[in-house]
Amino acid sequence: MLSIKQAAPAFSAINQQQxxxxxxxxxxxxxxxxxxxxxxxxxxxxxANDFTALIEDFTKANCKVIGVSKDDSASHQAFIDKFALKxxxxxxxxxxxxxxxxxxxxxxxxxxxKMGIVRSxxxxxxxxxxxxxxxxVNPDGHAQAMLEKVQAL
Length: 153
Fold this sequence. Notes:
Layout: E1 12-14, E2 20-22, E3 30-35, H1 42-53, H2 55-60, E4 63-69, H3 73-83, E5 88-91, H4 96-101, E6 104-109, E7 112-117, E8 120-124, E9 130-135, H5 142-152
């Protein structure tokens, strides 16, 4: 698991528009990188809608919000279209970014254990360092809490 003051692991993946997005694209800018299990599911929809509702505030704070799941670009675009989302969603179909950030973990639900994405968020400062790390995120109120973390940087 990652912790604050570490360099954020570099990443590159395509977004919903099949455009390659990399961490180095945001040098000098803050980034909220959040991982979620699956497009268009209840908790993931709450989180995406809440980040979208606050996107102007994140932009004013010189911060880019990026969601990551193992869904493909087409799934991401459908999710964005359905809810008019205003964030980039990266398609980590091979799980490389999930592995680098330590969010691909054994999860248990209804007595069944299986590997999956643990909902997690990383705030990366303008120098590429991890300023905040949270594994096991509760989506309710999370976007607002992350905005406050970003504004405090």
